[in-house]
């Protein structure tokens, strides 16, 4: 149920080709493909630090003003960072384009491979050795009973010989079928772009769905080995425990909002071109039709899938161990309309692009039984989504 002030274009490819950085928001999901242009209003000031109640108040005031000006069902789009107190990027767009179909042609983006050419500089933060040291520190906290899970991430900073075009990179991610949710968001000094496999929450009328992913294995080019890895993931005690921690946390966060809530007893498998993931689709019926997708997303963010459990203890461990600010990585990106419908995606498999500079992100969930070398390898596999779209080997 996209806002009615929409404009139809010929296809999802038409929206993809229309996208350009600097004035657009783009999100392609199984529900459809959304492109917005321009800004009618920007959520600014204190509300922009994503205090959910203040954001909702500010947005509702803006929406009411727009409705009096003839907009039937205005929306908000944008991105929220991982850490509380950091500025979000949330706007009310001027134009909204929507296409129900999401399937791109098989040759979408072909011949248009985004490559930065010569990479003049590549920095890993933290270094592989330091990342594994961080995993060991996290395992110490888990053994001490401070945590049951914490997600530790690292970045790749690339400086290319030529500017990277976000529009080309977005087209390549879509062509590669890199994830269920392909997105691009304008930030003040960069473009946030990615292909996430993970739905934070979707709300349609009184029904909501969330689809957490936790527990992962890298894909193999050998079909036999690839299937072995998938089967092993489904029976891995360590990964099933990690997934159960996430599902339990999400159900607990959603229970106050839902009349009914259904979660599968065991996870299933989903795949991307680079990874296998354990997946659980959790569905609920809302208690109150006034509860918006933004309300639900704020209650869930950040889930144990990208932070850990308990949440505050995991956040403290991340601040202590990770040597960088995540920014919008492991935040959320999406939309909400004035009826409360909307869709918010977990911001993973992504990069920040600014001219010749790119910053890529990847993380892994640390639980009892995790091994530092294996977690490092998992982050390396997750980097491949963006590296492949840029025409670079990992």
What is the total number of structural domains?
Answer: 1
Number of helices: 9
Largest sheet composition: 11 strands, mixed
| Secondary-structure content class | alpha+beta
CATH homologous superfamily placement: Anthranilate synthase
Mean pLDDT: 88
- The whole-angstrom Rg is 20 Å
Instruction: State the shape.
Output: globular
Span between termini: 39 Å
By DSSP, the count of extended strands is 23
Q: Low-confidence segments, ≥5 residues, pLDDT <50? A: 1-5
The percent of residues in helical segments reads 25-40%
CATH topology name, in short, is Anthranilate synthase
Give the name of the CATH architecture.
4-Layer Sandwich
- The level 1 CATH classification is Alpha Beta
Strand content: 25-35%
Organism: Paenibacillus sambharensis
EC number: 5.4.4.2
Catalytic activity: chorismate = isochorismate
GO biological process, one term: salicylic acid biosynthetic process
